From TrEMBL:
Annotated ranges, domain DALR anticodon binding: 462-578
EC number: 6.1.1.19
The protein, known as: Arginine--tRNA ligase
HAMAP family associated with the record: Arg_tRNA_synth (MF_00123)
PROSITE patterns in the cross-refs: AA_TRNA_LIGASE_I
Catalytic activity: tRNA(Arg) + L-arginine + ATP = L-arginyl-tRNA(Arg) + AMP + diphosphate
Source lineage: Bacteria, Bacillati, Actinomycetota, Actinomycetes, Micrococcales
Gene3D superfamilies named in the record: Arginyl tRNA synthetase N-terminal domain (3.30.1360.70), HUPs (3.40.50.620), Isoleucyl-tRNA Synthetase, Domain 1 (1.10.730.10)
Complex formation: Monomer.
Organism whose genome encodes this protein: Brachybacterium sacelli
Length: 578
């Protein structure tokens, strides 16, 4: 592992053990980047408390015990007891050299690969599909990609809403308009519009509403004709999902579909087991779990209803069946649920109930990766635009069209087809990156101009950085300049860039462990900035010293690799040129 923080941590921990005793061997040396040196060790203050001594004395003891000879210059004590560390340039260069030979680019290899179930995207068949689903798709996909790069086994689960009472009205509507009609086509292009039409008829009451209600019952009793139309409905919707996924470059396939309906055959037994184990009991005719620690108004225990008084099962029952399946059959070590913030209480209750039932053992971590809202310019949830329903595909097409004007201006010389491809990468990348660079539980405003800007923490800025390095590479090749095997690290800008590069592995690991793609975005943004400073200070092709030129080219190309790999973990494509 080339990361300096890790190397320094090891050295400091041996020093703690030597200076203060073996029980200090795993004290955190608190290594942080510093504006006064490359890093600072901030451990003295905490250790001083533990040892009941003065921080500066502790710092002196650490200094006497620590061996950083090959890594850094002798540290200096500053302020109350900070240790300022300046790494040896030669050490950084050697680490960068190792990094450029590492196919994983410094990503850690796990001691034991984990099986991680990532539940994400999960739109609803012919129900209001909103821009929130775009976000659960984009964030979940990046989490899945990141964990795979970290050597884990990822099982994607697309828990689509393909069951429940709305299907009565949807089936009746489909029957009425005809399965081959233009209205049915809407399921493939704008399911929301299909849903709204069915809903309007249902709300008008009368005969349609009565038929819709009857249809729910016949469907749930397993009636062949109802199931056939239901299958058709789901099939049409899947085509729509896949169009969105293709457009987005999401890694979800049909094999990852595990919709609510898949758990149907298990719901009865789930309820039976919960009741038999005394986890659930009948309350007001409904079978409920009262998970420990959840109270509603008047401090009354809050029920998680697993079987309604009419015998029907709901969202919670399905999720309990899903947890059990994921742990027992899929062998999950961790489960991440990438779902809107609004469902926080649901998941907390489901997780607690599943733990009480013994279906989610303590050692299996379950996390609700809360997804914030996408807002319109008016600060309200982006749902409709000028009253009409917001089509997700139209939104993405608009992003690509806007990116097209950017690239047309930037590179009118490129052939039409190539500009179209680049516009796609920039437009889609821009939208995805805006999602990913915001903390997943924060809201953000959908603002195409900002998403597609060539400056700031945006996809186009990073894509442009990659394109620039690739252009240098092409010119170098044309001039017969070959990159050195190891990057050259000498001046300050080169040091700073190399240090950034060494941070890729740890950052990826952090982003994967905490399910926080925005950390990776922030990292890539500073990396691209460090590259810009480097390129300003250290000319490559214009450099007359051959060794220097080749060494800098190697540093630039290592930067390209890391940027491309990082963008790939986000699911953002980097065009060859821009
Ligand atoms: N279909 C749900 C929705 O649109 C999300 C499902 C999330 N996953 C889960 N296991 N409940 O809100």
């Amino acid at each position: 592992m080339p990361a300096p923080e890790i190397a320094l941590t090891e050295r400091f921990q041996s020093a703690f053990a030597a200076a203060f005793g073996p029980e200090y061997a795993d004290a955190d040396p608190i290594i942080r980047p510093s504006q006064f040196a490359d890093f600072q060790c901030n451990a003295a203050m905490g250790l001083a408390k533990r040892l009941g001594r003065k921080p500066r004395d502790i710092a002196a003891d650490i200094l006497a015990a620590v061996d950083l000879e090959d890594i850094a210059e002798a540290p200096e004590i500053a302020g109350p007891g900070f240790l300022n560390i300046r790494l040896r340039t030669g050490w950084i260069a050697a680490q960068a050299g190792r990094l450029s030979e590492d196919p994983l680019l410094g990503a850690p290899v796990p001691e034991r690969a984990e099986t991680v179930v990532v539940d994400y995207s999960a739109p609803n068949v012919a129900k209001e599909m909103h821009v929130g689903h775009l976000r659960t798709t984009v964030v979940g996909d990046s989490i899945a990609r990141t964990l795979e790069k970290l050597g884990h086994t990822v099982i994607r689960q697309n828990h689509i809403g393909d069951w429940g009472t709305p299907f009565g009205m949807l089936i009746e509507h489909l029957l009425e308009v005809g399965e081959d009609s233009a209205e049915a086509e809407l399921l493939k292009t704008d399911p929301n519009a299909f849903y709204q039409a069915a809903r309007a008829k249902f709300d008008a009451g009368g005969d349609f509403a009565a038929r819709a209600r009857r249809r729910v019952a016949t469907l749930q009793s397993g009636d062949g004709e109802s199931l056939r139309i239901w299958t058709d409905l789901v099939e049409l919707s899947k085509q729509y999902f896949h169009r969105v996924y293709d457009m987005l470059g999401a890694t979800l396939t049909d094999a990852d579909l595990a919709g609510e309906s898949t758990y149907n055959p298990l719901l009865e037994i789930v309820c039976k087991d919960l009741e038999a184990d005394g986890i659930a009991r009948i309350s007001d005719g409904a079978l409920c779990v009262f998970p420990e620690g959840f109270t509603g108004r008047d401090e009354q225990p809050l029920p998680l209803i697993v079987r309604k008084s009419d015998g029907g099962y709901g969202y919670a029952t399905t999720d309990l069946a899903a947890v059990r399946h994921r742990v027992r059959d899929l062998g999950a070590d961790r489960i991440a649920y990438v779902v809107g913030t609004a469902q926080e209480l649901h998941f907390q209750m489901v997780f607690t109930a599943a733990r009480e039932a013994g279906w989610l053992p303590e050692e299996v971590e379950a996390t609700h990766v809360k997804i914030g809202s996408v807002l319109g310019e008016d600060g309200k949830i982006l749902r409709t635009r000028s009253g009409a329903s917001l089509r997700l595909l139209a939104l993405l097409e608009e992003a690509v069209a806007a990116a097209r004007t950017v690239i047309d201006e930037l590179r009118p010389d490129l052939p039409e087809q190539e500009r179209a491809q680049i516009a796609h990468d920039i437009g889609i990348g821009g939208v995805k990156y805006a999602d990913l660079s915001t903390a997943h539980d924060s809201d953000y405003t959908f603002d195409l101009d900002r998403m597609l800007a060539l400056t700031g923490n945006t996809a186009p800025y990073l894509q442009y950085a990659v394109a620039r390095i690739r252009s240098i590479g092409r010119k170098a090749e044309a001039q017969g300049i070959v990159a050195a095997t190891a990057p050259r690290v000498e001046n300050d800008a080169e040091r700073a860039l190399a240090l950034q590069l060494l941070d890729f592995g740890p950052t990826l690991a952090q982003a994967g462990a905490a399910y926080e793609p925005h950390r990776l975005c922030a990292y890539l943004f500073s990396l691209a900035q460090a590259f810009t400073s480097f390129y300003d200070a250290s000319p490559i092709l214009k450099e007359s010293d051959e060794g220097l030129r080749a060494g800098r080219l190697a540093l630039a190309q290592l930067t390209e690799k890391v940027l491309v790999e990082g963008l790939d973990a986000l699911g953002v494509n980097a065009p060859q040129q821009m």
